[in-house]
Each structure stands twice: as C-alpha cells, then as structure tokens.
Amino acid sequence: MNGMKAEADECPSHFALDDHQLHGGGPALRRHLDDCHRCQARIVERAAGQTSFSETSTALWTRIAARAQDRRHRRRHLLLFRLPALAVGLGAVALLLLARKGSDGPAASAPYLAPKGVTPVEITCRRGDATFRLAPGDDVLPGDRLRFRPLPIWPAARFIQIGSVDGTGRYTPFYPSAAGTASAALPAAGQALEGGIEIGAAPGPERLFVVLSADPLSETAVRRAAEPRAAPGTTVDEIDGAPVSTHWIVLGKRAGAAATP
Is residue 61 one of the residues assigned to a domain? Predict the structure, then answer.
C-alpha cells in the first residue's frame, strides 16, 4: 500500500496532463508516462471521456447548424419584403445626420462600448479528481480550484485583471493577486493564465469581475470600479480614463467542502 501511495504522489496532476495533451511535456514527464501503469490508465480513461463527449456534441452541433440555416433562409425571404422600407428609413436618417452636423459642427467621438453577452474567459474547475468547465450561473464549492483561459473577444486587449466580489461586498484580486499592482499581461493566444485560484469559504455568490484593457491598470482603480457595481452587475467602459471591456461572471456558491460532482 505504501508503494502505491508513493507512486500516486509522484504522478502528474490533472492540470499537468491537460498541458501535456495540448502542448506536449518534457522528457521527464514522457518517461514517467511510459513507465507508470496508473497514469497510462488515466490517459485511456480521459481519451474515452473525450470520445464520448465528441460523439454527443457532433450530433448536437449538426442540429444547431440545421436550425441556423433554416433561420437564415426565413430571414432572406423577409428581407425581400423589407428592403424598400429599409432604404427609405436609412435615407431619412442620413439626411437628419447631415442636417445636425451642418448646424452643430463636428460630433464628439463616442466612448468604447464593450461587447455585450460575450464570455471573456473560459473557466476550468478542478474539484477532487474531476476537471470540468464552468458556465455562468454554475455553482462552486469552497476548495474548488479555478483556472482561466482568456478568449479573443476584443482585438485591442493586451492586459487582463480578474477579481471577485463575494457575498460580503469585499473585492479580492486574483490576476494580479497582490493589492495595488498593475494588470497581468495576456498570455499567448489560446493559453491559460498561470496558476489558478482556490474558492474560499466566504459567503457567496462569487461575482467575478473581468477587465480587458490595452494598457495596464492599477488593481486599486479596478477595485474602486468593481465593489459598488457588483450587486447590480453593471459594467463600465472606462477606468481611469482608459477604454476597457468589463464583464461580470456570477457563480453560485454552495456551503460545504468540495466534492466530486
């Protein structure tokens, strides 16, 4: 039994196996996987799960694509009837804008509007021996470990900040993790942010505040923007005078220790 426990303690984590599957591991990891029967069984089990998911999702995406094509077909028919009215309406709007420009002078530039209804990060949850993706509205448990992979929703983004406002109304910074420091640089496309965060025992829900920016921002400025807006879930388009893309992701929190879902 002690030999089996020692072998399990030396085995790579599930996050390490995820990274190995995506990018390949170093020589030491490959040697371990070649020699470790336990890890070989884990890899076979993971592959079976991925195959099952792929078979299920393929049929689902086929149905979704068929419905989307049907909706496009119906929209094309409606468009044939609406084009004349649309042309008249656009002409009236153009005349109105030209008249206002002539009387009022150049219009002021509008602030950047962040994308609405777009998820800025993909969240992976590690709970016990299970690893799975979280969706907005999913529950988390104290002890869950979360990892974040930024998604390319705003081409100008170069930096990211992620923090959480818990049920007490207090903001906790995750990326960067130290109070008062500047935003973390985005990783290479498709890569996750380094490390992960562990869900604490503070009352929920966890309201994650994600801020994308072209220039680094101070954690203090992001905190000032987040705390008064957490309860209503309102976003901002500007922090300290810089355009930003901000998003709230609310995760419910259940009491008790983390367990396999």
Answer: no
